[in-house]
Amino acid sequence: MPDFRLPDLGEGLTDGEIVSWLVAVGDPVVVDQPVVEVETAKAVVEVPCPYGGVVTARHGEPGQRLAVGSVLLSVAGDGAGGAAARGEPVAAEAAAAEPGAAQGDSAQAHSAQADSAEYSGNVLVGYGTSQQNRRRRRVAHAPVADEPAAAAGPAKLAPAVISPLVRRLARDSGVALETVEGSGPGGVIRRADVEREIAARAPRPARAPGPWTEPAAASPGQGKRIPLTGVRGVAARKFATSRREIPEATVWVDVDATGLVEARAALPAVSLLGLLARFTALGLRRFPELNSRVEGDEVVLLDEVNLGFAAQTDRGLVVPVVRGAHALTATELTGRLRDLTASARDGELTAADLTGGTFTLNNYGVFGVDGSAAIINHPEVAILGIGRIADRPWAHEGQLALRKVAQLTLSFDHRVCDGGVAGGFLRYVADLVENPVALLADV
Q1: How many alpha carbons fall within 13 Å on the CB side of residue 168?
Q2: Which segment, 41-55, 184-198, 224-238, 327-341, is predicted with the most confidence on average?
Q3: 52 near 77, Cβ under 8 Å?
């Protein structure tokens, strides 16, 4: 009976929290069928099982955290376990019951029984496993009197759903996904499909409590308790780790962003955040100490700029990553930022979209605030923030004028550089914000 263990779900992740089970004990599963939703420090992912057979045990309950390598699911294969689930004798039992059965045949049958599950190879979260790695290993049953001639049909696949959040929306709203017609490629069920089904019902089913939105009841007079689990728990641990391990310092500067706003108006295909991302990537190539990591007693300067950016969603704050940002123009960066933001809000980000960041950009100005000393996104070593762009009196060309002014703030790990490097980077980005014309040919 093979045990399926929690695989490594992403860079540097050591555990995951069970959100919900997609199969029950006794259910048949096929190779690479999603069997459980797991939330890590990066995302909620559906984990596919590399074994085919019948579920004999689930190890863990929703809300429980398991370390990577812990047993998630026990599966009996179609050869031994599947036969046992149907009440049929397995090969070893048949061999023992036959008078002339050789001991070697019986031992071989026992060995095959232990190795009977259909298996596909290494788990690749979100993508199943490669066809070339799949192998099928079965044990033949001994003939049984009055056994039906027709073989049992194949196990039914769960409906294809674009993201775990869509599956949860359907479950909480009482919608059976088997009844929903998917509009995505190959019939994949999208969020809009489930919402259309919900809207067609009258009255709409009451939404069941969710793991992130419903606070637990407290004793009378003591308010409400909100468990630090899921996204809240992940954020809490990362913030605590950052504060505990990083000797953080902060520098900031006010900038005249009038030229930035004018450049944005002249380039409709480019967003303000796309321009700022381009300036940041250029700054990091000039000041590589801020695009690094601390590993033991060494500072490792990284070759690529993988730019993370803070995105607010219904589930909380997430940080998608634009890989290879140093090689992208402002127009290309704008497109990647827009696509990743849409995926974050629809709950469609993969673990790969949320790992590997080397520097984070935070546009907290969208919340109407001027400045913030943001917490560094460990294990990165710096984070750049921009506040709101507001009309303020400013000395311009020897005259007092009303200009578009914003504040740039850089929090950095003092182990990797001193104030000269941090200030040089911030001033370089500020100069580009105040005079973006030099980069217009490269957008």
Answers
A1: 23
A2: 327-341
A3: yes
By three-state DSSP, how is residue 243 classified? helix
Distance between CA 325 and CA 344 in Å, rounded?
Answer: 18
d(CA 307, CA 328): 11
Query: Which residue is listed with tokens 């001193």?
Result: 418
CA dihedral 101, 105, 109, 111 (to 10 degrees): 150
* Helix 164-172 × helix 191-199 angle, to 10°: 10
**Of the residues 110, 141, 396, 414, which is catalytic?**
414
pTM greater than the 0.90 cutoff: no
Q: Is 107 left (phi over 0), alpha (psi -120 to 50) or beta?
A: alpha
Q: pLDDT digit string (tens) for 159-177?
A: 776 566 677 777 777 888 8
Please state the φ and ψ torsions of residue 112, each to the nearest 5 degrees.
-65, -35
Contact of 323 with 332, CB cutoff 8 Å: no
Q: pLDDT by residue (tens digit) across 147-161?
A: 444 444 455 566 776
Which single residue is written with the structure tokens 């004018």? 262
Pairwise CA distance, residues 396 & 277, whole Å: 26
Known catalytic residue: 396? no
Question: Cα–Cα distance between 347 and 19 in angstroms, integer?
Answer: 14
CA distances from 276 to 48, 250, 282, 302 (A): 39, 19, 10, 21
* Domains of the chain with bracketed CATH: 3-157 (2.40.50.100), 159-224 (4.10.320.10), 231-442 (3.30.559.10)
Q: What letters, b where the CB count within 10 A reaches 16 and e where it falls short, cover 127-138?
A: ebbeeeebeeeb
Say which residue the tokens 């002339």 belong to.
Answer: 100
